[in-house]
Amino acid sequence: MMRSMFAGVSGLRNHQIRMDVIANNIANVNTIGFKKSRVTFQEMLTQTMQGASSPQNNRGGTNPQQIGLGMSIASIDTIHTDGGTQSTGQMTDLAIEGDGFFIVRSGTDEFYTRAGNFSFDTEGNLVNPANGLKVMGWMGDVEKIPENLSSIVITKGQPIGAQATTEIVYINNLDADTPDGSSYQVPMKVYDSLGRSHTIYIEFTKVDTLNNEWSYTVTSPTWTINGADTGTLIFDTSGQLDIAATRAANGATDPDIVNTFSFDPDGADTVTIMPNFFGLTQNAQETTVVAHSQDGNPPGSLRTITIDTTGTITGVFSNGINKELAQIALAAFDNPSGLLKVGDNLYQKSNNSGDSRIGQAATGGRGSIAPGSLEMSNVDLSEEFTQMIITQRGFQANSRIITTSDEMLQELVNLKR
């Protein structure tokens, strides 16, 4: 008799725990990055009234006779399915699409979160403004992940220094029908070590139509050009630059096909430039050669940032330079359900979560990042309300076990009267 009552008590207690979990799920239906939980039950220890017997010559075997003693909690699992993504338009709001967690720290304490509502504080640290935890990653444009992560610091209006030009890239076509002796001049603005601009001209002159040969001459209206201020370009019969012949004609060394030229601006370092002609062709079309790009720049300041799907933060500067400033790190786990919830949308490692696999988003099994968006809760209200009804009915049924067992005990007591 008491077994049935204790079984009912276990059912009441554990259905109440299940209702507590459901209530927490519903309460967090609008919590950023929240992951719902579920409760599973299992049968408790069973009392064996009679063991099983094996078949005999004149009698078959019998099954064991066992009475269950109620039920208990088997597990309370965190369900790490993706929540919906809501666009916010705020660049530092970040949602993870797929597996992975943002890494945040307070001192030496490391936590993991799916809530990407980040912003920059007054010192330029990328943080969660709700608790001040710093977002981890690494600074600069690095090809290899550093051993130690660092906080991401980007200050408003931070400067970028001047960079002297070291290469000019020329592209497009030189007209194959150009008469010998005809020329075409292309200007290009370059920069010295102080960030001052200077205009350099390269004049392309057709030298030998039969051998598809051109010469070039570097000039400046302001400065004396030193070094290889002249050179030769030779094209093959398909209109492509003949690299071997051009390199030999200029006495250049691999991998260059021409030699460098330089000039000495007042008060600045010598500017040494390698002209890059790999993008040139010679076809029977109009001459369209342009100086496509150069790698120098004047000084500037940070205007804004962009964040891509890999978590790379790129700075857009006032001098037209786009530069990778930092990389947001993601951590993935073999068993994310084994992580320990510690509040504030945070998780910590546990003995069953496995070690974190840290790296760039969209690599190594880690999800991609959606900038300007937040991941919403993965709670499904229709599912939770259904589970609430099932749990309520289970609770009611177990309460009936207790009241019925009590009535049966009362009948036993009444036998004495």
From TrEMBL:
It comes from the Bacteria. Keywords: Bacterial flagellum, Cell projection, Cilium, Flagellum. Signal peptide: none annotated. Residues 371-415 form the Flagellar basal-body/hook protein C-terminal domain. Residues 8-35 form the Flagellar basal body rod protein N-terminal domain. Residues 95-156 form the Flagellar hook protein FlgE/F/G-like D1 domain. The keyword Acyltransferase does not apply. One of its GO terms (cellular component) is bacterial-type flagellum hook. It is found in: Bacterial flagellum basal body. Residues 173-296 form the Flagellar hook protein FlgE D2 domain. One of its GO terms (biological process) is bacterial-type flagellum-dependent swarming motility. Belongs to the flagella basal body rod proteins family. This is Flagellar hook protein FlgE. It comes from Koleobacter methoxysyntrophicus.
